[in-house]
Design goal:
Length: 78
Amino acid sequence: MQCPIDGTNLANADQVLVSSLNDLIANGQLRDRADQLIREPLEHALINEGGKWAFAIRNRIPSLIADEAIAIPDELRL
């Protein structure tokens, strides 16, 4: 699969990153590319090669809508 924003390959995010993103979601501190507050925790996520964007996987279905991409905060990037 490829990132709908930059065309790079997507890979599974590790559980440490998913957990960190879920902490930000629980604290109301994470927004998507369309600046909408993310309210539902992630089960899993896909990330692009540069580690800038995450895409939620819920009910085993990845959301590859560009506006729903999650900008990974700098402090969480590898």
